[in-house]
Amino acid sequence: NLTLLHSGTNYLNANGTGTSDIRVENVAATFVKRLAQSIFDNSAIYIDGGNIYVRNNSFGAYHNAVSDGATTAIEVHGGPGEVSGNTVDWYKLGAYDVNGTGMHYHHNTISNANYGIQIFNIVLMDNNIIDHNVIRLNQKDRVLRGAFGIGSCYSHTNCPGDLTNTIIDSNLISFQYDTT
Fold first, then answer.
1. How far is CA 71 from the centre of its chain?
2. What averages of pLDDT result for each successive group of 10 residues across the chain (180 residues)?
3. What is the DSSP letter of 1?
4. What pLDDT is stored for residue 178 in this prediction?
5. Within the chain, where are the H helices?
6. Within a 10 A sphere around the Cβ of 108, how many other Cβ atoms?
7. How far apart are alpha carbons 93 and 7 in whole angstroms?
């Protein structure tokens, strides 16, 4: 068990030739934006490799405003692997799957986010499953025009790869109530 407070780009970054057999389990990570720190792209966990397991972790963010700077909790490139049992709160994006093959995202809870799980296919993505996740979005408080629970890249220019054999099933996605 490990508890981390971080304000940098990544608290865990695992990538490079031969990166494999990465397990991140039972970690509590909290993003704390420094007062004078401008907003920047960051992921609490960034893994590019094979045999990736991110399980039973907690990702949170201290916030004095909704746009506190916590961008992505879990960013995974490659696979196969599993992202399960994680709790994400107050990150803009819960999980980012880039070029995943054989990845399984299940039983995660993502709250107070603008985006739940994003699929980004630069090359072929094959045999992925996204199921039994709970995603609660707060797009109204974040004052962002677009929001999604589970989404894929829609631009052939940015995402020229194919997305095949992907199952998205039994996820609970809710949007913040908005009367405007």
1. 9
2. 57 83 90 67 87 95 63 93 96 92 97 92 90 93 82 76 91 87
3. -
4. 76
5. 139-142
6. 26
7. 16
